Amino acid sequence: MTEMLQILDVDGTLVGESPVDDSVTRGLYEAMVTARIFDHKATALQRQGRLATYAPYEGQEAAQIGAVAMLEPGDWLVASYRDGAAMQSRGYPWTQLLLTRTGDERGGRPPAGVNVLPPSITVGAHMVHAVGLAWAESLKGTDAVAMTMFGDGATSEGDFHEAMNFAGVYQTPTIFVCQNNGWAISMPRARQTASETIAQKADGYGMPGELVDGNDVLAMYDAAARAVDRARRGEGPTLIEAVTHRIRGHTTADDDGRYRSPEETARWAERDPLERVRLYLDAAGVWSRKWQEEIESAATAAIEAAVEEAESLEPFTAEEIFDAMYAEVPPPLAIQRRRAAEAGLA
Ligand SMILES: Cc1ncc(C[n+]2csc(CCOP(=O)(O)OP(=O)(O)O)c2C)c(N)n1
Ligand SMILES: [Mg+2]
After folding, report:
1. Predicted confidence (pLDDT) per residue in 156-194, tens digit
2. Whose CA is closest to 15, among 3, 27, 28?
3. How do beta strands 183-184 and 187-188 pair?
4. Which of 67, 94, 146, 307 is deepest in the core (most CB within 10 A)?
C-alpha cells in the first residue's frame, strides 16, 4: 500500500495500461480544462468583491474528475468546499456553486435528480452522510453507490473513523476519496498522522486501500472505476488516497507563502495534471491548438452565463434566510425573525 499507482507519466507517456480509449481521455481533458477556467474565474470574482471567499482547487482537477467519471446518475457524491470540479461534472451547476460562495441558500439546491449533496464546509462531517446514503441504497436493494471526497486534514476528525468503521462493518457501497494535498491550511501532512500513508488506514477497517498519483487522471479513473465496480457488486467500501497538490492558497483569504517553500511549489509545477494529458493527446494525434481554443471558449461562455445567472437573482431577504433552514421555524428563530422584520431587515 506504499506503492503509488501511476498510468500517465508527467511527460505524457503511458507507464501502465490506460483504462479508457482516447475519446474518453479527450473528454476527461476537456472537463479538467473547463474546471480550471471556472476556478480562475471564481478566484477573480472574489478579488473583485463579488464572492465572499473561495477555496481554489487548481492542481486537483485530475483527482476530482478522474474519481467521479465512472459514477452513474443514481449514485451519490458527498464532497467538500474544494470539490467544485467533481461536483460540477456530476451535474451540480456552476451557478449553484457560485451561490454557495455568496452565502445564498439557493446554492445548496441542485436541480432535482442530481444526487450531489451541497458542499460540506465542516471538515470531515460529510463522510458519515455518504455512508448513510450508501447503506440506505443497499437496504433499498438498488446497486447505487456513494462517493465521498475529503482532505488529508479530515482524516484526523472523529467522523473519519466513524464513517470508515461503519462502512467496513456493514460493507456499505461507499468509496472514500482522500485528496492528500499535503496541507490542512498551514498544518503539514506529517502533523496529521504518523502512519506512512493514508491509504494503509483502510486495513484497520477491513477494506482495500489504494495509493494513487492524484495528478494522473487515468490512474484516478482506473482506481475509482475498480472501487465503484466492487461497491456496486456488493463487495463493500474502498479508500483511495490521491496524492496531489493545491497550486493556490487554502482559500482566497490565505497567504501560503508563509508556510510553503518555493522549492515545494517548483517541484509540483512540473506535475501539473492537465499538461501531461495534453502531451499524451498531442502525441496520439488527437490534440490541436484549434480544439484547445474551442473547448476554452465553450467553457468560458458557459461559465460567464452562470456568473450572469447567479448575479441576476433577486437577493435573499432576511425573512427568507430564517425560513431556509427548518420546515417549521422553531420559536427562538421565530422571535428573531419578528425582530428582524420590526427592524426593517425582513
Ligand atoms: C470541523 C472543522 N474544523 C476546522 C475547520 C476549519 N478548516 C477549514 S478547512 C481546514 C483544513 C482542512 O484540510 P484538509 O482536510 O486537508 O482539506 P484541504 O483544505 O486541504 O482540501 C480547516 C482546519 C472546519 N471548517 N471544520
Ligand atoms: Mg489538505
Report:
1. 999 999 999 999 999 999 999 999 999 999 999 999 999
2. 3
3. antiparallel
4. 67
Residue 57 is among the residues annotated as catalytic for this protein: no
Q: Ligand 1 pocket check: which of 54, 58, 123, 177 to mutate, most ligand atoms within 8 Å of Cβ?
A: 123
Specify the pTM: 0.95
Task: Determine the pLDDT at residue 317.
Answer: 77
- Report the C-alpha gap between 227 and 248 in whole angstroms: 30
In a domain, 5, yes or no: no
**In a shared domain, residues 40 and 184:** yes
d(CA 175, CA 237) in angstroms, rounded, equals 6
Which ligand minimizes its atom distance to the CA of 150? Answer: 1
Please indicate, yes or no, if residue 163 is contained in any of the structural domains: yes
Domain count, the chain: 2
Q: What range does the domain containing 324 cover?
A: 317-346
Q: Ligand 1 within 6 A of 122 CB?
A: yes
Tell whether 237 and 339 lie within a shared domain. no
Distance 229 CA to ligand 2 centre (A): 27
> What pLDDT is attached to residue 78?
98
Query: From the CB of 283, is ligand 1 less than 6 Å away?
Result: no
